[in-house]
Known about the structure:
Blueprint: H1 11-16, H2 28-35, E1 41-44, H3 57-66, E2 70-77, E3 83-85, H4 97-100, H5 114-117, H6 124-129, H7 146-153, E4 162-167, H8 176-186, E5 211-215, H9 218-227, E6 233-236, H10 252-255, H11 260-266, H12 272-284, E7 289-291, H13 310-318, E8 322-325, H14 331-340, E9 344-347, H15 350-356, H16 365-371
Parallel strand pairs: 1-2, 1-9, 2-4, 4-5, 5-6, 6-7, 7-8, 8-9
Antiparallel strand pairs: 2-3
Helix pairs in contact: 3-7
Amino acid sequence: MPVTLRKNTLLLPLLLGLSHPAHATSAPAALASAAGIPHPAVIAHRGASFDAPESTAAAYLLARDLGADYLELDLQRSNDGVLFALHDDNLQRTTDVATKFPERKDSPANAFTLAELKTLDAGSWFNTAYPQRARPAFVGLPILTLDEIIDIAQGNPAHTPGLYIETKEPAQFPGLERDLKNTLQARGWLSPGGSTQAKGEGAVGQGKGRVVLQTFDKNSLALLHKEMPQVPKILLLWVGDGYIKAKSEQTFAASGLTDKAAFYAQQQPHSTAEFQRWVDDAKALGAIGTGPSAALTGGGAQSYADLVQPWMNQYSHDQGLLVHVYTVDAAVDFKHVLGAGVDGLFTNRPDALLEYLQRPAPASATELLERHGY
Ligand code: G3P
Ligand code: CA
């Protein structure tokens, strides 16, 4: 979900007026294949973040070696200009910033230099939050730069996953899109891949769809398209202020509900036309698809408005767009969203999704973590 919910300014994207070639009559699988994106795509959300601390080497090494198609990351920039992975708009939940820098514990991550960020422990919180999956070796895991995540993606000769990169809070980081292009270019990840499309799951990171760019922000989407016109892009979808207008204006606080997932599950776009407008905007701004939220069977912190209803996916497909849904971890929900027509899934449990898709991992998460010394 967006870290903060605020209005987008739409002038820049509207001025650009760019769109990718229409494929209105193509099947979604053919669309994905043409873009070099597996179908359905297995996108490891912040790495294999069910089994290891999100956005750390443990999570990304595990996701890679399990066989995920993509390593997903949320991109931010340090005070001294280094791109790194972090989801939240501050460091409190996933690091010990409150101990190491108490006076700056609420500051955004771009208030810190990379050297400062690298002093933080981004692993111990996981052991406290999930004692049943805790490992002593997670203690002290550092925040990773984009370069370090690229190193991980390139590090297994048997399987090179692609990178699925979100510009997080892009208004906070002017020029982030260009910085990202520069890093990807310097690392050879914007060069034409060895194939126009992925030849089997192991080749995703060497094919045309080796990088997918994603954002909730239409301005950032336009800038990404301007900087990297050939790279596939996804507009993430969310119901809320500044995003898809909700049918009901009632807030969570006023709803009387105590469970946010129950509140989100009641949320609907204001109208069919309102949903369609966002899909149309995604296409006009150069996206090859959308990334909608899902309402999960078991609820929980990742259960939001159901934006993958069959009519919604059908509309996106009719416009020649793919649908990559976030964030789905349970077999019952894999079945539900795939049945509704999605073309890829963000998941914290790539091993579970790969098994569901009959693409089993070469070893268990436990075995792979232990092989890496965790
Ligand atoms: O990037 C899409 C997916 O990651 C959902 O959003 O809040 O987890 O970054 P979030
Ligand atoms: Ca994300």
